[in-house]
Amino acid sequence: MTVDWVLIPQKDAQIPQQECRLLLDKVGLPSAPPASESTEERLRLASRDVSTFWMMTSISMKYVLRGDLIMGDRFIFGNAYLLQDVKQRVAGETLHWQRLNMPFATTRAEQVALIRQLCTEMQEEMRKLVAQRGQVPDDPMSIIEVWLSIE
User: Residues near 75 by Cβ (< 8 Å), separated by ≥ 6?
Assistant: First the structure.
């Protein structure tokens, strides 16, 4: 099935403007630029995403230790996208989706290595976020190290 058209909501005084997300674009339809975030909002959201990253990392470790490679990879990829968002916000950039160039991990050892890599990168972003007065957990890696030692 091919879709070669799309309806774009038009501004109308009688109809409130709604958010529209374009799924497929064959011809390069114009789109509104993303809304920029205030510095406070950007730091708050980056701090939230850092905390979410560490919670999800512990969950991904549980799947890896259970030998569930598929669910482990799903959580690892989710964390990679959280890390990408944090990096963009810490750099003061407007969030934009970028395809990750990350291979699927097909063994437990590869998944553990990916988790370690993501954690190292997040720790670096946390230092930058703290320098900008963002909030981060005290020592999240200590909990992850307990899980990694079980492998």
Answer: 56, 57, 59, 60, 63
